[in-house]
Structures are given as C-alpha cells and as structure tokens.
C-alpha cells in the first residue's frame, strides 16, 4: 500500500493527494445533483444561477483541478507541475471570492467555511515551501 503513496519528503505531497481525492469525489457529488452544489453556493443569487449545467461545469473544473493536484502529489519537484497545481488553488480562491463578494452566489456560512480554508492554506504552504520542492 505504501508504494501507492507519494515518495517525496515532507507533507505537501500527501496534502496534494488528499485534496486531489476530495476534488475528484466532489466531481461525482455535483454531477449527481445540483443540490449538492447548492450546499456551497448559498448566496441570495444562487438558487436561479446554479443549474444542472453549471453544477456539471463546476464538477468538470473539480476533476481537472483534481488531476493536476494528483500529478503534483507524485511530481512535486517538477517546477511546471508545482506551478500548475498552485494555479489551481489561486483560481479556486479567485472564483469563490468573486462569487461571494461580486456575484452574490455564495456567502459566509458553512458552505464557504468548509471550502475557503483549503486554497488559502495551500497557497501559503506552497509559496513557503517553493525552495524546498523546486528550488529557485
């Protein structure tokens, strides 16, 4: 079983593996029903903007982000892969921030608090660990 885990030192590869698994799991959840997406998008404008199509688009984004993060879990020392993975978290943070502060499809509450910490923590962690994993 341990041969299936990332072989690089440190905890970041395992964190990437965990978050990639969660992203792929979330893909399945939101493909099943838009009601699952509505657990995150709880803002005043969400009900009429979250459709079956937008839910599946969100799921597709999660699948893509999950694959990039999975690749990073096993190739954390590859600068391009590291940057792509970091970009997925920056895009996610930008998305949720704009949906909250500009578009009003989400709001402070359980939906946001179970998601927002992940990109914030990971962006910070990846920036702080840049030299350890990919050098200058």
The main β sheet shows up as: none
Give the overall form.
elongated
Task: Count every helix, treating DSSP H or I runs of 4 or more residues as helices.
Answer: 8
Rg calculated over all Cα atoms: 16 Å
- β-strand percent reads under 5%
Helical fraction: over 70%
Uncertain stretches? none
Q: Round the mean pLDDT to the nearest integer and report it.
A: 89
**Secondary-structure element series:** HHHHHHHH
Structural class: mainly alpha
For the secondary structure, the number of strands is: 0
Measure the end-to-end span: 33 Å
Question: How would you describe the overall organization of this protein?
Answer:
It is a single chain. The chain has 136 residues and is mostly helical. 72% of the residues lie in helices and 0% in strands. It has helices at residues 12-32, 34-37, 46-49, 52-74, 79-103, 110-113, 117-128, 130-134. The longest helix has 25 residues, at 79-103. The termini are far apart.
For this entry, give a set of tags.
mainly alpha; 0% strand
List the topology elements.
Elements: H1 12-32, H2 34-37, H3 46-49, H4 52-74, H5 79-103, H6 110-113, H7 117-128, H8 130-134
Summarize the structure.
This protein is 72% helix and 0% strand. It contains 8 helices and no strands. The mean pLDDT is 89.
């Amino acid at each position: 079983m341990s041969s299936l885990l990332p072989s690089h030192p440190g905890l970041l590869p395992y964190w990437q593996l965990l978050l990639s698994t969660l992203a792929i799991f979330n893909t399945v959840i939101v493909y099943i029903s838009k009601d699952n997406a509505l657990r995150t998008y709880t803002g005043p404008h969400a009900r009429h903007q979250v459709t079956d199509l937008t839910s599946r688009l969100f799921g597709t984004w999660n699948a893509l982000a999950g694959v990039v993060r999975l690749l990073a879990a096993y190739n954390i020392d590859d600068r391009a892969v590291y940057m792509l993975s970091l970009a997925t978290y920056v895009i996610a943070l930008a998305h949720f921030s704009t949906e909250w502060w500009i578009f009003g499809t989400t709001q402070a509450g359980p939906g946001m608090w179970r998601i927002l910490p992940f990109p914030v923590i990971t962006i910070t962690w990846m920036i702080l660990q840049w030299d350890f994993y990919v050098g200058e």
